[in-house]
Design a protein that fits this description.
The complex is a heterodimer of chains A (about 300) and B (about 450). Chain A contains eleven helices and 16 strands. In chain A, helix 5 runs parallel beside helix 6. Chain A is globular. In chain B, about 35% of the residues lie in helices and about 15% in strands. Chain B is built from 17 helices and 16 strands. In chain B, the strands form four sheets. In chain B, strands 3-2-1-4-16 form a five-stranded parallel sheet. Classes of the chains: A alpha/beta (about 300), B alpha/beta (about 450). At the A-B interface, helix 1, strand 7, strand 14, helix 10 and helix 11 of A face strand 5 and helix 13 of B. Bound molecules: flavin-adenine dinucleotide (FAD) (2 copies), iron/sulfur cluster (2 copies) and FE2/S2 (inorganic) cluster. One iron/sulfur cluster binds next to helix 3 and helix 4 of chain B.
Chain lengths: ~300, ~450
C-alpha cells in the first residue's frame, strides 16, 4: 500500500464469517451521501473498481461505512486490510438516493413499510431503516440468511426498526424458511398490512419477493447490483431492462420498481464474467507470495 | 532527396503489431526530423497556422528544429499547446494544418504533426518542462474534468498565476486520452502521464475521484470552497445504443466499456484485475475513430473483427490513417451493411447478428448520400461479441445539478464560443461537453479560449 493513499480504514469489524464492516475516511463522500447510494473503491493501482453500497456515514468525522462479503479476488484482498491501511480510490456518492428520502412527510406517514434484507443486503437496508426512525417513522424489517452465522447487523437493526423478524433457510435461528415464507406468514397469519416493500439482497431473492408482492399487490422497490465499471453513466455495463426501457443502474438507480425489472436478463448479465474468473483465481493463488498487500513489488 | 515527398515515418510491421499493444508509429529520429523540417519554406503568411485550431506558430517551432535548438522549439509549442505530444499523434492533421500547407499544392505537405510529436518527445526525454508562472495571484479557479479541454484551461490559467484545482470523476486524469484512445496510438505512461505531469508542474492540483453533481456541486465549490470561477470540461461520455432486439445480451458492449476495460483498467495486462471478454468473432458497429480503436483493440486481443457500417468507405468518419492502419492489420470492413437484430443463444450470449445490405440513395440534409435498405438482402453474420460504437452525448450529471445552466436539445451545455461563458455567472464551459463528441485539439482550443475568458471575467470583477 502506497503512502499517498488517503482513504484510510478507521475501523474494521468482522460481522460474520467472510462479511466485514469498515469505516473509511472519505470526507467528501460523507458530506453529501444518502441512504440508497453507493461508492466505488479501488484498492491499488492494479485493482478492480468495486461498487459497494453505503451502509452508514458520519458527516462530522468524515467517514463512510461499507459492508462487504469476501467472495472473489478483490473482496478477499480487501478483507486483509486492517485499521490504518488505505484504499487508493474511493469515489462517491454514486447513484440516486432512496426514494424515501425525498418522499413528503404526508406520504410517508400514511405508509406502512416492510424492509426485506437478504444476506449482505442487510447492509444497504440498515441506513434506510435508521433514516426512517430518525425522521419519526416506524418500520418493520425481515433479515434473512441461509443460517444463523450469516445473519448480520441484527442488534443495530433492532435499535431502529419497530419489529425485526429473523428467518433462516435451515431454521438455525428465528423463523425457518426463506424470506418469502416469512412475508406470507406476516401477512396471512399475523394480520400485518404493508403498503410498500423494500427488498435488497441476492438477485434471486429480489426476483421471488417481487413475484410474491405482485400477487399481494404491494409496491416493491429493489436495489440492483449489476456489473459496473465507471459508475457515472459512461460505459453502459450496468444497463438493465426496466419495463420497456433500458436504464443504467449507476445513474438511474440502483433502486428501481421491482415489478418492472427484468430479473432473468439481469441475472444472466451478472454471470458474464464468470468464465473470466480463471485469470483472477491465478492472481489470487499467487497472492500469498506475490500479491500480498504489504508486498512492495506490488506497488509498481 | 525529393523535396516534394515527405520523409516517411517508420512504423511497426502490421503483422507484428496486430498482436501487441505497443505504439504503431515510431516517429522521426533527429536526422529525419531535421530533413523533414527543412522542407518547410517558412512562409511569410503561413497558411498552415490558419488550419490549426490553436494557431500554433508552426514555421516558428519548425525553424528551431532546423536550427538544432529543440528546447526553443518546445518552448514555442508550449506557448500554444499543453499537450503537444498528444496532438502530434492524434490530431486529424490531414484536414487541419497539413491540409493548408503550401507544400501540399505540388507534393506532400510538411508533416507538421510528426514534427510536433518529435519536438515534444525530445523535450520529454530530456526532461524539459514548460516555463512556470512568475507571479501567483492566489485566486481560486475550479476545473471540472481532466480531459484535453480541462487540462488546457487549467494549464493556461496556472501560467497566468491562478490557483487551479481540477476535479476528475475517474481515478486517473486524462479523459478520453486515458480511457478511450488505445495504448498503441497514444502510450499512456510515456506520453499522456508525462504531459499531465507538465500541467501539474505549473502548479495545477488534480483531485481525482470527485464526481461533480454527486460528490459536490458547482454551487458548493463557489459558495463554500471559495472558487471564484468554474470551467466545465466534462466531455461527452454517454454511450448510445441502437435499440434493436438482443442488445442487452451477454457479449454486447458499448465501445466505451470495451475500451475502458482495456485502456483505463488495463485488462490486456494480465497483472491487472479487471477482466475483458475479448471475443473470437467480433463485430464493431459504427465507422468513426472510436469504432476503429475498438476494432483494432479486439484484433490485438486475438479476435477476427468486422467493422459494420451502413454507408460506403468514402463516408467513413474515421481518420484516413486509422482506416488504413486497421485494414493493414486485418480488420474486415463490412460496408453498406446495417444490423437489424442481435441473435442470442439459449445461455443469453450473442450468437450472431441479422444484417441487411444497404445502397446509397440521394444526398440528405447533411449532404451525405442516404443509405437505403436493399430488398431481400438479409443475411446472418455469425459472432460471439458485438461492440456498439454509435457515438456519445454529454452526461447530464452536471447540467441537472447546476441551477441556471442552460443546455440545448442534445444536452450540450450552451457556451459562448469566444469566451466559454455559460448562462451562469462565473461558470464557463468548453470541449465535447459543449460541442458534442469532436476532437482533442478543438477541446484544447476551447479550453484556451475559456482561460482567456475567465481571466477577463475575474479581472473585471
Ligand atoms: C451498486 C452495487 C452495490 C453493491 N453493494 C455491495 C455491498 O454493499 N456489499 C457487497 O458485499 N457487495 C456489494 N456489491 C457487489 C460487489 O461489488 C461484488 O461482490 C464485488 O465486485 C465482487 O468482486 P470480487 O473481485 O471480490 O469478486 P469477483 O471475482 O469479481 O466475483 C466473485 C463472484 O461474485 C460475483 N459477482 C461479481 N460482481 C458481482 C455483482 N456486482 N453482484 C453480484 N455478484 C457479483 C461473480 O459472478 C462471482 O461469482 C454491490 C454491487 C453493486 C453494483
Ligand atoms: C476512442 C476514441 C478515439 C478518439 N480518437 C481521436 C483522435 O484520434 N483524434 C482526435 O482529435 N480526437 C479523438 N477522439 C475525440 C477526443 O478524444 C475528444 O474530442 C476529446 O477528448 C474531448 O476532450 P474533453 O476535454 O472535452 O473531454 P474528455 O476527454 O471526455 O474529458 C472529460 C473528463 O471529464 C470527466 N468528467 C465527466 N463528468 C464529470 C463530473 N461530473 N465530475 C468530474 N469529472 C467529470 C471525465 O471523467 C473525463 O475525464 C476520440 C475519442 C474516443 C472516445
Ligand atoms: S495542434 Fe494539431 S492542428 Fe495544430 S499544428 Fe499541431 S497537429 Fe496541426
Ligand atoms: S504552410 Fe507549410 S511550408 Fe509554409 S510555413 Fe506552414 S508548414 Fe511551412
Ligand atoms: S457503470 Fe458504467 S454506465 Fe453504469
Amino acid at each position: 500500500m502506497a503512502e499517498n493513499y488517503i482513504y484510510t480504514v478507521m475501523k474494521k469489524e468482522s460481522l460474520a464469517n467472510s462479511i466485514y464492516l469498515m469505516d473509511v475516511k472519505a470526507p467528501r463522500v460523507a458530506k453529501n451521501c444518502y441512504p440508497g447510494q453507493f461508492v466505488i473503491v479501488k484498492m491499488d493501482e492494479k485493482g478492480e473498481r468495486i461498487p459497494l453500497t453505503i451502509c452508514d456515514y458520519d458527516r462530522e468525522v468524515g467517514t463512510v461505512t461499507i459492508v462487504f462479503q469476501a467472495i472473489g479476488t478483490s473482496t478477499k484482498l480487501m478483507a486483509q486490510y486492517e485499521v490504518g491501511d488505505a484504499f487508493r480510490d474511493f469515489t462517491g456518492p454514486l447513484g440516486c438516493k432512496s426514494e424515501l428520502i425525498d418522499m413528503s412527510m404526508d406520504e410517508l406517514s400514511k405508509k406502512k413499510i416492510l424492509f426485506v434484507a437478504g444476506g449482505v443486503g442487510t447492509a444497504p437496508v440498515y441506513p434506510q431503516v435508521k433514516w426512517m426512525k430518525e425522521n419519526g417513522y416506524n418500520v418493520d424489517c425481515i433479515i434473512g440468511a441461509r443460517n444463523k452465522e450469516l445473519i448480520i447487523l441484527e442488534d443495530r437493526m433492532k435499535e431502529y426498526a419497530e419489529n425485526v423478524y429473523i428467518t433462516t433457510d435451515d431454521g438455525s435461528y428465528g423463523f425457518k424458511g426463506n424470506v418469502n415464507e416469512c412475508i406470507k406468514d406476516l401477512v396471512h397469519n399475523q394480520g400485518k398490512h404493508y403498503d410498500l416493500v423494500i427488498a435488497i439482497g441476492p438477485m434471486i431473492m429480489m426476483k421471488f419477493v417481487c413475484i410474491l408482492t405482485k400477487e399481494l399487490g404491494i409496491k416493491t422497490i429493489v436495489s440492483m447490483n449489476p456489473v459496473m465499471v465507471d459508475g457515472t453513466g459512461m460505459c453502459g455495463a450496468c444497463r438493465l431492462s426496466i419495463g420497456n426501457e433500458v436504464k443504467f443502474a449507476c445513474v438511474d438507480g440502483p433502486e428501481f420498481d421491482g415489478h418492472l425489472v427484468n430479473f432473468d436478463e439481469a441475472m444472466k448479465r451478472s454471470q458474464m464474467y464468470k468464465s473470466e474468473e480463471g485469470k483472477k483465481v491465478l492472481r489470487e493463488k499467487e497472492g500469498a507470495t506475490h500479491h500480498h498487500i504489504l508486498c512492495e513489488c506490488h506497488e509498481k | 532527396m525529393d523535396v516534394l515527398k515527405k520523409v516517411p515515418v517508420r512504423e511497426q510491421d502490421p503483422k507484428v503489431r496486430a498482436t501487441n499493444f505497443e505504439e504503431v508509429c515510431y516517429g522521426y529520429n533527429m536526422e529525419e526530423a531535421k530533413e523533414e523540417a527543412s522542407r518547410c519554406i517558412q512562409c511569410k503568411n503561413p497558411k498552415c497556422v490558419t488550419g490549426c485550431p490553436v494557431s500554433i506558430d508552426i514555421p516558428g517551432f519548425i525553424k528551431e528544429i532546423v536550427n538544432n535548438d529543440i528546447e526553443a522549439s518546445f518552448q514555442i509549442l508550449s506557448k500554444y499547446s499543453s499537450l503537444p505530444a498528444v496532438c502530434g499523434r492524434v490530431c486529424p492533421q490531414e484536414s487541419q494544418c497539413e491540409q493548408r500547407c503550401i507544400r501540399g499544392i505540388k507534393g506532400d505537405p510538411v508533416s507538421v504533426g510528426k514534427l510536433e510529436r518529435f519536438t515534444a518527445d525530445w523535450a520529454r526525454e530530456h526532461k524539459i518542462t514548460p516555463q512556470k508562472p512568475k507571479e501567483l495571484n492566489g485566486i481560486k479557479v475550479a476545473v471540472i474534468g481532466a480531459g484535453p479541454a480541462g487540462l488546457t484551461c487549467a494549464g493556461d490559467l496556472a501560467k497566468m498565476g491562478y490557483d487551479v484545482t481540477i476535479f476528475e470523476a475517474l481515478h486517473e486524469p486524462g479523459g478520453v486520452l486515458v480511457y478511450g484512445i488505445p495504448e498503441f496510438r497514444l502510450p499512456k505512461e510515456a506520453v499522456v502521464k508525462a504531459e499531465i505531469e507538465n500541467v501539474k508542474s505549473l502548479g495545477v492540483k488534480i483531485e481525482t475521484n470527485v464526481v461533480i453533481g454527486k460528490s459536490t456541486t458547482i454551487d458548493e465549490l463557489m459558495d463554500e470552497e471559495g472558487f471564484e470561477a468554474v470551467f466545465i470540461g466534462s466531455g461527452a461520455g454517454l454511450p448510445k445504443f441502437m435499440g434493436i432486439p438482443g442488445e442487452n445480451a451477454n457479449g454486447v458492449f458499448s465501445a466505451n466499456e470495451y475500451l475502458t476495460r482495456n485502456n483505463l483498467m488495463k485488462a490486456f495486462d494480465k497483472s491487472y484485475d479487471t477482466p475483458i471478454i475479448a471475443g473470437k468473432k467480433v463485430a464493431v458497429v459504427g465507422g468513426g475513430n472510436v469504432a476503429m480503436d475498438a476494432a483494432r483493440t479486439a484484433l490485438r486481443l486475438g479476435a477476427t473483427v468486422y467493422i459494420v457500417y451502413r454507408r460506403s468507405e468514402t463516408e467513413l468518419p474515421a481518420r484516413i490513417e486509422e482506416v488504413h492502419h486497421a485494414k493493414e492489420e486485418g480488420v474486415i470492413l463490412k460496408l453498406l451493411t446495417n444490423p437489424k437484430e442481435i441473435l442470442v443463444n439459449e445461455n443469453g450470449w450473442v450468437s450472431g447478428m441479422r444484417c441487411v445490405e444497404m445502397e446509397l440513395g440521394e444526398p440528405d440534409l447533411s449532404g451525405r448520400r442516404k443509405p437505403i435498405e436493399k430488398e431481400d438482402s438479409e443475411f446472418i453474420l455469425e459472432l460471439d461479441t458485438v461492440i456498439m460504437s454509435l457515438g456519445t452525448s454529454p452526461n447530464p450529471l452536471i447540467s441537472s445539478t447546476t441551477k441556471g445552466l442552460d443546455t440545448n436539445k442534445y444536452r450540450c451545455i450552451i457556451a459562448d464560443e469566444e469566451t466559454g461563458l455559460t448562462s451562469r455567472e462565473g461558470v464557463f464551459a468548453g470541449g465535447d461537453a459543449v460541442t458534442g463528441a469532436a476532437t482533442v485539439i478543438l477541446a484544447m482550443g476551447a479550453g484556451k479560449a475559456a482561460a482567456v475568458g475567465i481571466d477577463k471575467y475575474l479581472k473585471s470583477k
